[in-house]
Specification:
mainly alpha; Arc Repressor Mutant, subunit A; 2 domains; three-stranded antiparallel sheet; about 55% helix
Amino acid sequence: MEISIDIDDPVPLFTQLVTQVKQAVNQEKLAPGDALPSIRQLANDLTMNSKTVAKAYRILERDGVIQTRGYRGTFIHPEAKTNSTVDLNEWLHTTLNETVSKLKASGITDSEIRIAFSQVMNNNHN
């Protein structure tokens, strides 16, 4: 699988990596059980920060596209193809847009929404 990262693209680097791995799975260039390079190796190959690659791997693992098996490495998940069609980020944006629209329709101000969101994110429900 060939990964190419465009540093001039406005899409974040970790998102580019996630997208390309999911595309490779959907196009059957990566199959269940295939090994992926370590975070350090892939970061070195792509001349990227290892934290960026680690973030992409965390998202891919959360989405059920890859699975980490401790010291044995990182592999394509058995259900990766099915899981690659689910875009949790898109769902997140859709859900937030719907929620914010409902709040605004109820007369709540942008400032109130921001403050409440910040409090909820910080688990401070005062």
